[in-house]
What does this fold into?
Amino acid sequence: MPLITVALAVVVLLILIGRFKFNAFLALILSSFSVGMLNGLAVSTTLDSILKGIGSTMGSLALVLAFGAMLGKLIEESGAAHTITYSLTDWFGLPRIQLAILLTGFLVGLPMIYNASFLVLIPLIYTLSSTTGLPLMYLGIPLSASLSVAHGYLPPHPAPTTVAIMYKADVNLTLVYGIIVAIPAILLGGPVLALFFRKFRNKPPEGLYVPREFKREELPGMAVSVLTTLIPVLLMLAGAVVTMTCPADLPVTRLFKFLSDPNVALLLAVLVGSYTLGIRRGKKMDEVMKSLGESVGSVSMILLIIAAGGAFKQVLLDAKVGDYMAQVASSLKLSPLLLAWCTAALLRLSLGSATVATITAAGIVLPTMAGTGVRPELMVLATGSGSLMFSHFNDVGFWMFKEYYNLDIKHTFMIWTTMETIVGLTGLAGVLALNAVL
It folds into this structure.
């Protein structure tokens, strides 16, 4: 049974990392071999899957992680992160700083994919924790909750937008309903969950962040700090608006589609930031370039671990574990809303990717909608919230959270996996409540 073999592979991974203290990258590669062979793949076929998974993950994330690290270094070293965090603290007050993080995360996460928005904002979380003395998780959990919900629930993110088209849902109405459902999900998965870890103390990885002291007069201005930080957000938001409102064959649409690609948007932010937060403030070009080079070195092992997580996911795909899960889900006798949620949740458990789980689940449950009268907008939200469930080793987000917050496997499960499960279950409850009202 594929589900049992996946469970055995996860146990192997836990033993290698927890008992024998293996590096996570090596443990993931070995576990990928085990899950492939347990599901009947030849050794050579498993190796091909691992290489394919590493290649595809590297291809989609290498530049995003590298440019994100560079932008983060510029924001950190220039004092821009301090400028923004001092302003947030002044505006909201320390008791309401989590609210500031939720709003920031939601607004930034609305147009940007999770990985890119996380990398843009993580320097602010590091700096806020350093300057206020608040625990890293007290601030980091609300940020990830808001980013994850925006990514999984709401257009213009790729998966919700794609399945909205598949279900023939109104994209704008989906966004309105999605925000209604997102509010309790973010609150429960963010500040409420963070209460349980308010005494937990962890520090950023060595080399990725160095606490700095700045005098207020040394800091860059608020306008240039915010503008440089939000360049990727503004470009991606503009791209989403143009894509939804203009014909695809117009030159302006093609231009903004290019500029709003996360790789391009982050590259442009690095180039602008090199001037506004570096050269303009008296640094020489070789100083700026040296700093950017060091920032990429600090995320090299993180990139390898994330790529190995992609290999684990690819082996599961090639072993047809997802197909088995889809068959199990389609045999369940449930309402379309529950079926969409359960199908997406099972696929997320087996495949790791929320985007893949959402789009695949939509294709499975689409035929069940005919004649049920279920609002297609709610089907989008049910599928999206289900795709956030059960995040574990085969999810890139799991490893990003673990590495950037310098957590062990146990606490990553306790925090990240619990958070994703909370936002997934709350999304289902919100969809069912809206369905009863509407």
About this structure: Residues 329 and 382 are 14 Å apart (CA to CA). The chain has a mean pLDDT of 86. The radius of gyration is 21 Å.
